[in-house]
Amino acid sequence: MTDVSSRRLPRAPGLGPARGRSAAHELLGAEHPLARAEERVRWLRRQAMTLGVLLPLGALAAIGGVPGLRAALLAGALVQAWLLAALSAAMAGTRGRALELIATGRGALPVASVRRRRARLLRPRHVHGLAKAIQALRREARCPYRRHPRSRPLYVPAVIRAVDAELGTTARILCARPDVSTVARIERLLCGEASPLYGDDPRRLREELTRIHFGAA
Predict the structure, then answer these.
(1) Using one digit for the tens of pLDDT, what is the confidence trace for 62-82?
(2) Which of 58, 93, 118 lies at the terminal end of a domain, its last residue?
(3) Which of 111, 143, 146, 199 is the most buried (most CB within 10 A)?
(4) Burial 174-187 (b: 16+ CB within 10 A, else e)
(5) Distance, C-alpha 134 to centroid of its chain
(6) 155 and 208, same domain (yes or no)
């Protein structure tokens, strides 16, 4: 009779040693948010790939007349859909963690996700797009309800108008091809969930813009 304590229990995602440690794991430590995010991506990708192989085999078996597979195939398809959605969210989380590292001046780390994020941030088209987004935000804040009178913008128009000059400076900094950490901080300002750009405190937004300008100087 097999001893229960000797059986191998399945590991939860992100726990325990991985087969091949990532560069983020080696350089930043297992508990760093980027290392944990990358491990979650790897775990989800392995599960999705395994199920992606099994589902077609099960479908062929069902076509061949093997009974009782329809319910299992439906359940497998639902699980695969969940895995793919979770994988997409995890990859977005990895990109966000990489952006945070670049914004804090660690964009030279030899980590694949950081290198990919850095390359994207340095594309002239991307930098120009950020500058255009800032200028569009300034224009909309001056007449926020002209285009969509019944819809409320995500930002507070009065807050944007209060820092209009600082936002203009930020757009000019982007046009001057700043370093990658400055571009990362500006993207975090425009896209971050907790960005003061979408708050109701102009002083907090002005302080963040001042830090960005100081870092770009």
Answers:
(1) 777 777 778 888 888 899 899
(2) 118
(3) 111
(4) beeebebbbbbbbb
(5) 20
(6) yes
Domain that holds residue 99: 22-118
Predicted TM-score of the model (pTM): 0.74
Q: Which pLDDT band holds residue 216 (cuts at 50, 70, 90)?
A: confident
Which range, 51-65, 101-115, 132-146, is most confident? 101-115
Number of compact structural domains in the chain:
2
CA 27 vs CA 13, 36, 49, 142, 198: distances in Å: 20, 13, 28, 46, 34
What is the model's pLDDT at position 116? 92
| Euclidean distance between CA atoms 182 and 178, whole angstroms | 6
- Asked whether residue 97 falls in the same domain as residue 160, the answer is no
- Asked if residue 53 and residue 133 are part of one domain, the reply reads no
Helix axes 164-175, 202-216, angle to 10 degrees: 30
For residue 203, the one-letter residue type is: R
Q: Using CA atoms, how far apart are residues 15 and 11, in angstroms rounded to an integer?
A: 7
Whether residue 136 sits in one domain with residue 87: no
For residue 140, being part of any structural domain is answered with: yes
Boundary-marking domain end, from 100, 118, 136: 118
Measured between alpha carbons, how far is 42 from 37 in angstroms, rounded to an integer? 9
